[in-house]
Amino acid sequence: MSFSKSAESLFQRIAEVRGGSPQDFAEEIHRIRFWLTEARDKRPSGYMNDPRAFSGYLSYHLPLHLPELFWILDRTHERGLLGSPPKTVLDMGCGPGTASLSLLLWLRSQNLPDPQELHLVDISKRALDTARNLLSSFSDLRPRTYKVDKGRGVGLPPSGGPRADWILISHVLNELGNGPRFREKKMQYLESLAKRHLNPGGTIFVIEPPLREPTLDLNTMRDFWVDPHEVGGNVVAPCPTHVKRCPILLQKRGWCYSQPPRTWARAKGLAPLDRELEKTLVIELTNPGFSYLVLRMEPPIEESNHEIGVTDASMKPPMACTPRGLRAATQIQYRGEWLKERQRQESGPKGSPRPDHDRDDES
Fold first, then answer.
1. Which residue from 217, 223, 245, 316 has the highest number of Cβ atoms inside 10 Å of its Cβ?
2. What is the pLDDT of residues 137-154, one digit of tens each?
3. In 10 A of CB 214, how many CB atoms?
4. Out of 99-113, 186-200, 293-307, which region has the weakest mean confidence (pLDDT)?
């Protein structure tokens, strides 16, 4: 089935499963948005098992987040950093399968085959059953599901469970809590997941909300991940190769997240509900954001001197993360934009930063 027909079939199935239009679940959408932002401490742990709350989630949060992994894969693939398509995939805290659906749609857009195996992990049986249902709308893949009881969507599969080429962790780590006192716990979880369930040479995709604390946690964890005295791994994206310390953290310039224009998702056919949602909720879905990391345990094979926009055009001058640290950039359309690589004569041999006196990533 082609990409366009796959996307059309998926959204038809979503409408069938939720049992009404977004307008019918406006109250539930507002409630869940509140639970997932300023009222996280008041959110009931089993909300995904409530039928109307779950339909509200399918009406808003699934279509909101669906384009995220697709966009990450597109950008990473364009730079030649993605590697071979996965044969096995593990989707942690999968919910209704949002990240897996995004992955399969991206594979269709590239005329690449589905994985041979897909493993879904969540605490909600309703979410797992729905994920399988939605995936079946355009794929013959029959995922294996694991219902876990520990934590809030962040339990590991059973010991000796599946190993995968790609692991997806979308909007999950923040379930462990956010802020400095939770960072070690998050890092231990991520490292355990990699050691127990990632195949050699495999890739982990971590997506989080663009909120301050979850994203600062992610920025801090990327430094831990590349530290040779800790994990000693490789951040494939969005960071340029050989950035040892996150420059936006060093200079205390805020936090790093991406806001690709929603017009991109609409043009791709990934956001057909946007207009209805905007009318129902009286909002504008112009550039909803997310933070992310693409990780490997091994040192980099392919290296990149690209730059990433860490502000948008409203800041003068806009700033970019580069192999030489945080620098002013002439043109940035949106936060998280992948900018062209600097010429090799500017940055020296591929992968080698300039001497310390030319760096500006420290105050």
1. 217
2. 999 999 999 998 755 446
3. 25
4. 293-307
Q: Per the domain annotation, does 245 fall within a domain?
A: yes
Which of 288, 304, 320 is the last residue before a domain boundary? 304
Q: What is the mean pLDDT of residues 85-90?
A: 97
Secondary structure letter of residue 290 according to DSSP: B
| End-to-end CA, the chain | 53
Q: Is residue 224 part of a domain?
A: yes
pTM of the model: 0.91
Range of the domain at 110: 3-15+67-304
* Edge-to-edge strands, sheet with 144-147: 144-147, 117-122, 88-92, 164-170, 198-208, 291-296, 234-237
Tokens of 267: 């043009």
Per the structure, how many domains does the chain have? 2
**Residue 333, both tokens:** 């359309």
Phi/psi for 208 (5° steps) reads: -135, 165
pLDDT per position as a tens digit, 172-207:
999 888 899 999 999 999 999 999 999 999 999 999
Q: Is the backbone peptide bond immediately before 143 cis, with ω within 30 degrees of 0?
A: no
**Backbone dihedral angles phi then psi of residue 280, each to the nearest 5 degrees:** -65, -45
